[in-house]
Design a protein that fits this description.
- The chain has 354 residues and is of the alpha/beta class.
- It contains twelve helices and 13 strands.
- The protein has two domains: 2-228, Type I PLP-dependent aspartate aminotransferase-like (Major domain) (Aspartate Aminotransferase, domain 2); 231-351, Aspartate Aminotransferase, domain 1.
- The protein has helices at 2-15, 22-35, 46-56, 73-81, 102-105, 125-134, 187-196, 218-228, 231-249, 281-289, 318-326, 338-351; strands at 39-43, 64-68, 85-89, 110-113, 138-142, 150-151, 154-155, 162-166, 180-184, 255-256, 267-268, 274-278, 327-330.
- The strands form three sheets. The protein has a seven-stranded mixed beta sheet with strand order 1-9-8-5-4-2-3, with helices on both faces.
- The longest helix has 19 residues, at 231-249.
- The chain is globular.
- The protein binds pyridoxal-5'-phosphate.
- The site of pyridoxal-5'-phosphate has 15 residues, from helix 3 and helix 4.
């Protein structure tokens, strides 16, 4: 894509189209079409998107927001910066929020739920939305890792009042710097986010209120718009890779794998990451490194509540804690060849003596 991307950059810089121009509007239109929502608003990054959504939805001081600890600190940071507090619930087998634990976490102060669709798999959103309706709670989806993933045919980001995506370079759709987006079917939310991302400035140059600078750069928007059309084939390739990993590692008792791509018809996972749980994880990490294979231990092997500086250490989440002791992400990228995936899987097998 190099010449296509450099051609776009050249054109934009020649025209001087750097901020809030047509390319951003085009990307927003195409993203909303892709996710199947009425509106998409480009923002500076997903963290800012979540923060603005909480504010736009009226979540603030004194409110509680139910979310997970198995997420990037960004989710809890957005809640904190909106003035609310995180209430963390444990995860289930698929490493996403255990929906059956939500109701016990609800208090009179609970205002919202932020489900996090981790690793490219959508949470059990039908059940979650039913709970939210029952308790009159706002749902903002952290869909940073789940562009294109579906649950019962509905795309990540399209279930709740709003959903937020990250286009951090390592994401399935990556910019060359920070970028993110909010999607929503609510005109009221969309109007508020458009204002909140740009100093509260209206089309008539009025200022609607105190606000923020969370714009998406036009250059990123143009490149993301160009890349968006490749996303379906990249997802297909990631699913193929996940299938190869599953076929080659499924018989190992020492590892727990994510659900394979075609396990159930309700989920269409996009495999932003291939996150496994592995016995002797640190040894496996070093063994693979010594064979030229870079793996990642998600967020340094700690959930959000395990960073004392965040003040969330009072939560006890056994499943999350156990998972973080074993978690490892195997290489996952649409550019990997079958040989590379097989090489990784075979090295994992050898490490355990198969
Ligand atoms: C689950 C999750 N939430 C939020 C974010 C924050 O996204 P950004 O870096 O675009 O602010 C990330 C990014 O890594 C993420 O993985």
């Amino acid at each position: 894509m190099k010449s296509e991307i450099l051609g776009t950059i050249d054109q934009l810089l020649t025209q001087g189209d750097v901020m809030l121009r047509q390319q951003l509007r085009d990307f927003e239109t195409h993203l909303a079409e892709f996710v199947d929502t009425k509106y998409a608003i480009g923002v500076s990054n997903c963290t800012d998107g979540l923060h603005l959504c909480l504010r736009a939805a009226g979540v603030g001081a004194g409110d509680e927001v139910v979310t997970v600890s198995h997420t990037f600190v960004a989710t809890a940071a957005a809640i904190h910066h909106a003035g609310a507090s995180s209430v963390l619930v444990d995860i289930g087998e698929d490493h996403n929020m255990d929906i059956s634990l939500i109701e016990a976490a609800i208090t009179p102060r609970t205002k919202a739920i932020i489900p996090v669709h981790l690793n490219g798999r959508v949470c059990e959103m039908d059940k979650l939305m039913a709970i939210a309706h029952r308790h009159n709670l706002i749902v903002i989806e952290d869909a940073a890792q789940a562009l294109g993933a579906t649950h019962n045919g509905v795309k990540a980001g399209a279930f709740g009042l709003a959903g937020c995506f990250s286009f951090y370079p390592a994401k399935l759709l990556g910019a060359y710097g920070d970028a993110g987006a909010v999607v929503t079917n609510s005109k009221e939310m969309a109007d508020k986010i458009f204002l909140l991302r740009n100093h509260g400035r209206t089309e008539t140059n009025d200022i609607a209120g105190w606000s923020f600078n969370c714009r998406m750069d036009n250059l990123h928007a143009a490149i993301l718009d160009l890349k968006l059309k490749y996303v379906p084939e990249w997802i297909q390739r990631r699913r193929e890779i996940a299938k190869i990993y599953h076929e080659l590692l499924n018989d190992l008792s020492e590892v727990i794998l994510p659900p394979p791509p075609d396990e159930d018809s309700a989920h269409f996972d996009v495999f932003q990451n291939y996150e496994i749980e592995a016995e002797k994880r640190d040894g496996l990490f070093e063994y693979l490194k010594g064979r030229g294979i870079e793996t990642l231990i998600s967020w340094g092997g700690k959930g959000v509540h395990q960073f004392p500086a965040l003040g969330l250490s009072h939560f006890t989440l056994p499943r999350t804690e156990q998972m973080f002791r074993k978690v490892l992400m195997l290489p996952m990228n649409a550019d990997l060849t079958d040989d590379q995936v097989e090489y990784t899987a075979n090295c994992v097998r050898k490490f355990y003596g198969y």
